[in-house]
Amino acid sequence: MVAAHKVVFPTEGKHLLEITREGPLFIMTMVDKENRFTPEMCKAICDALDHVAEVVDKEELTEAALMTRGQDKFYSNGLDMEKAFSVPGFTDHTFMPMLNKILLFGIPTIACLNGHAFAGGCLMAMAHDYRVMRSDRGFMCMNEIDLPSPLPAGMSALLRYKMHPHVYRSCVLEAKRFSAQEALASHLVDAIAEGVEGTVELGKKVALKIAPKAKSGVFYGMIKEEMYPEISERLMMNAHAKL
């Protein structure tokens, strides 16, 4: 299947990510090397999600899914500390609302972990409905305990509700680096494959299998709101507070 033309975000002049389309599948590819989260990257992701939602609604698609991926050895290496924390309230007002937007997105979402997913990258992956992971390179890890850094309530809630208790403990108190095989055994990911291209193809396969569920329209997002009320509430608890 041939991909349609790409739409880049935020602009051609500053290319952080792109959306391509293959039939019912929308593929978000982050292209900023380690894909660290900055105010600009988070806005680009949110704008791209809005673009996909607008297309799905305008075309009244009955099959649709979103897959996110990085390039080479990184899915995302987490926050760009210098740029992120130069903006007051970045975590509460920008990063966690972005996670919430992914968590409750109105069509199926699949994170294709082509490489490392550390800290914020791990959180972004866990906000998706499904995850596939490259088996021969890359780890999932929350390394805040080693920085050291606190883990805000919204981030903690996302991990706690998406992980089994003993896995959550190892993740946040030990900064365990989960290989693909360990992530699969711990139910952090749904499937694994070798190499970047193999993982991307697996991600597409998973996405296309679940895409028909989008026919439920607004109910898909509504059901997710009922699945994750506690996570969403905590992710957004300070989003509208004045700085």
UniProtKB/TrEMBL annotation:
It catalyses: a (3Z)-enoyl-CoA = a 4-saturated (2E)-enoyl-CoA; a (3E)-enoyl-CoA = a 4-saturated (2E)-enoyl-CoA. One of its GO terms (biological process) is fatty acid beta-oxidation. The keyword Transmembrane applies. Pfam families: ECH_1 (PF00378). GO terms for molecular function: delta(3)-delta(2)-enoyl-CoA isomerase activity. The chain crosses the membrane at residues 102-127. This is ClpP/crotonase. It comes from Linnemannia schmuckeri.
